[in-house]
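Apologies for my clumsy wording, but can you show me some protein sequence, whichever is easiest, together with the matching structure tokens, please?
=====
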Amino acid sequence: MNKSLQLIPRRQKNFLRDFLRDIAWPAMAGNVAWAFFSVAIDPQSVEDMLPRLGTLLALALYLSAEWYRIRRVGSTLLGLWFDLFLVICIVWFAIATQANKGAPGMALVLIFLGVGIGHLRGVWPPTGEGKGNFEFGQINLWMAALLFTSLLVVSSWQPWVSFFAVIIVFLFWLNLRHGKAL
């Protein structure tokens, strides 16, 4: 096989890794923080302000810890493509949550599906003892199913359902990482 053709996946992986680590992840974290403070300053709807703020805060904490962690671990090319998909969905979710429109519930379903499938398929290399990839994948798929069912039954986004789904995943993640994420 031609050597230059063999370099394409490596170059693609290096570009995606550097782009995600140095540009996309910090921009996404900033986007989530911007959405959090925008909701806090101008809630638009006071009755669902707390679950929207809580969801954005939990997401910001998770993203900060994961961004720090991914800087120290390896990645696969497929994992980087999954990360790019998740960046797009998380930015969509943060903006839609802040605006309280634009289908934030569907964005969150896609986030949970992406994380769940990615962990079950092993697209991200596990780190340390008690890796938890399978378990974390399962809990994300369960939350995706819960949110999707909620969207079908109620026909609209329910901020409290999203908040509890994110908190469950966040607490599960903290338990599985137990000192490995931070």
Summary: Residues 14-177 form one domain. The longest helix spans residues 3-41. The helical segments are 3-41, 49-70, 77-99, 104-121, 133-154, 159-177. DSSP finds six helices and no strands in the chain.
